[in-house]
Amino acid sequence: MLRQFFASRFWALVRKEVNQIVRNKQLLIMLIVPPTLQLLIYGFALNPDVHHLKLGVVDYAQTADSRELVAALTENRIFDVEMVTFDESVLARQVETGKLTVGMVIPPKFSRDLAGDRPSPIQFFIDGVDANTAGIASGYIRQIVQQFNQQYLSPNMRVPISTQVIFLYNQGLTSSWFFVPGVMGLVLTLIGSIVSSITVIREKDTGTLEQLLMTPSEAWEISLSKVVPLFVLLMGDVLLALTIGRLIFNVPFRGNFLLFMVLSGLYVFVGIGVGIMLATLCQSQQQVVLTTFFINLPMVQLSGAIAPIETMPKFFQYLSIVNPLRHYIAIVRGILLKGVGLEALWLHVLALAVFAIGLLAISTNRFRNQLN
Amino acid sequence: MKRILSQAVKELAQFRRDRLTLALALLLPLMTLLIFGFAIRLEAKDIPIVIQDFDNSQLSRLYTEKLFATNQFTPVNWQSAPETALDYNFAKAAVMIPPDFSQRVTGNQSSEVQVIVDGTDVNNARVIKNSIKATTQAFLQDQKLIPENRLVVPETRLWFNPGREESLYIVPGVYAVVLWIFPSLLAAIAMVREKERGTILQVYASDLTAGELILGKALAYLVVGLGMAIVIMGIGALIFRLRFAGDPMPLLIGTPLYLWASVMFGIMLGARTASQNAAVQGVALVGFLTALLLSGFIYPLSNIPFPLSLVSNVVPARYFIGITRDAYVRGIGWSGVWFNLLMIFGLGLILFNVARKALSRMQLGD
After folding, report:
1. For residues A168 and A107, what is the distance between their CA atoms, to the nearest angstrom?
2. C-alpha A336 chain-centroid distance
3. A252-266 pLDDT, tens per residue?
4. Partner residues linked to B53 by β-bridges
5. Chain B closest CA to A65's CA: distance in Å?
6. Which of B76, B123, B165 has the most A C-beta neighbours within 10 Å, making it the best mutation to test the interface with A?
7. Which superfamily, per CATH, for B47-142?
8. What confidence tens digit (pLDDT) does each residue in A97-128 have?
9. What pLDDT digit, counting tens, does each position of B199-226 carry?
10. Most-buried pick from A96, A126, A139, A318 (CB within 10 A)?
């Protein structure tokens, strides 16, 4: 039975494909270098942390209270004092040009107000160009000032309600843990679609497809022999991406490894399906690379890899349901970070399976038709 | 000069004849503008949260109401363990009010409210935490549960963007990303096609120098790029309601300079790669990644860690984003952005020289 398989036409075709891919250095480099670079750069460069914000201070009061307040702001390294001045217009100018993120003005009567049991206002102006950072910064300012009120000004005051916040899945809020699973999906999409479209279109370009057709091979054998080696190579990329995530970014792996590999395999089929589909639609390599660009850009941007799905306008959230990458990324984050299994992910798995089978069936069918 | 011009005219004629490239040159930038401009948002709205009120008193109900009054959260009904609501992604956070909540709060003791937040999306986890803390504080003040005297009151004001509209931050950045990727992509393809089809040999045979060839091609794609810039900035202004915040001169001068650098980048990649595929991959990998990730487009530049932060110093998109954000949001004008213009000009010059060297080495006499 086994011997029969190794002597079969199908096996010969698979070996031909493997040889072709292995001999093509450019293709091998493409399978290794861009995914590695992308994972590293996305993982390191995308960082929403709000810390070491540049703070400028004008302290007209110059009292122990005012110094204590400034110390409270810088204590957690969320704010760093970059400038101390007595000229408000200089401070304003620095915030205007974006050299400082936050400017703070403590009025001369600051301590007198406090001593006289009156509320004492402090002015903060924040550079609002970066809306997200500005929002989080103003949240921190409120919290720190409130803590200052409680701990420094009225240490005996009772706190009626305290909130104990715990972050699940990512206690230290390490930003790469969010981005790395997303980029794993992104990398598979880009590489899978490009590599598979190129291996197919090249055969069209160079005319060797006709030669293949002259052999007694069946059309299904030709198309399947294309899919199998690509699948194996791309699964290698899955492992590569996972290794980088685990070793370099210390991303946890809390779920089931087998489930992860099976579902990644499903997603690899999506990538191959998209690639073969594009190859059947296009006439030349140039068209293929341009159209993959056209397909991949929205697929990646509407997947939640970089900007979370929940933050998009409703219309784009619904649109992303037909994006297989969105489901794959949800699955990867679920398995790696949350450690959940099919019981929580079945909807995404179902969607992914539909896309994988559908795309692969349609694209290989088109390919077969073109062969006949 | 005349030779440069005729080279540019020839290039434009070729460009116009290639239907697919022409269509993509028009559609891709527009699609990118719309998708990035609409879909890249960082802060979540309508965040689903679970409230488990074990106290169920008037005070705890008021507290719950207060949490939803900000319109940032939407309630989710969940009966079993709150962690599973987060596991199944039905909710992003759960707030658990203890049974003795109102008793302790009114009885001069303190009560601890447990909050668990899904930390997967790091940025919004932080937003949720801040928001719940702030709401709790506001609730205490509303209910007169804390003294109002002897308090430091922060009066925060957001400059330039008081409504914290994220589009004001994202869209000017998209201009820089789009105007970097697509002009360079087209220029790279044009350059490498000449090599692939062997027409470069005809150029070698003529007395055109490397510099002239590059300038001719660059001029053609500069024109294409300017067309792109007018279209996306025009449509961007209409759809996202961007208005000039100050003197638009730095932007008007900076845009052609930036496009020039972009086209040079493409020609350089085209001169150095052997196939169209490799050229597109090069632009996609180097150009796209640097313009998207090392330019401060999504998160602040200061968050990029050390070795990568050095690279970001030579990313022209970084400097152009400074110019577009100034033109549309900040409005400081020349004094804020002259250095950015200088850097873009300098980087463009370096790219031109690298491209010229690469071409000369491939036999064009200088």
Report:
1. 41
2. 14
3. 999 999 999 999 999
4. B97
5. 10
6. B123
7. abc type-2 transporter like domain (3.40.1710.10)
8. 888 999 999 999 988 888 877 888 899 999 98
9. 777 777 777 777 788 888 889 999 999 9
10. A126
